[in-house]
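Design request, tokens follow.
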């Protein structure tokens, strides 16, 4: 694993939220929203999304998305901190690992885990842009 790859993995694993950008259904306008995520063993981000959310409606039509992971919290000058943008496709993901890792990271999501409109999605990253700070 390269030093850059290791830095990205540490950053992604060290955070629990990000800005998800999808394309609005209809006209393809970028749409950004705050999401919580956890990671699989290989550092793939996993999101737990409601079918009622705007970003999920967008993903059903076009699964392309990007996730900005921001590691700049607490810095007086955030532009000197690390952040990464992962670009790829969000795919519905049904697996025990996703559920257990997500709920371990976000225990309050347990209340939604039984709702029929929530599903897990894995971000299959095709490209990553790291600003190491």
């Amino acid at each position: 694993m390269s030093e850059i790859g290791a830095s990205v993995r540490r950053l992604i694993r060290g955070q629990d939220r990000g800005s998800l950008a999808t394309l609005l259904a209809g006209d393809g306008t970028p749409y950004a929203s705050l999401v919580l995520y956890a990671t699989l063993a290989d550092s793939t981000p996993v999101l737990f999304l409601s079918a009622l959310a705007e970003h999920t409606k967008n993903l059903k039509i076009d699964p392309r998305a990007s996730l900005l992971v921001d590691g700049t919290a607490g810095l007086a000058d955030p532009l000197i901190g690390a952040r990464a943008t992962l670009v790829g496709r969000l795919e519905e993901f049904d697996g025990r690992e996703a559920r257990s890792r997500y709920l371990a990271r976000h225990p309050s999501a347990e209340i939604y885990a039984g709702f029929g409109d929530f599903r897990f999605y894995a971000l299959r990253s095709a490209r990553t842009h790291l600003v190491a700070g």
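Comment from the thread starter after seeing the answer: thanks! Residues 102 and 108 are 10 Å apart (CA to CA).
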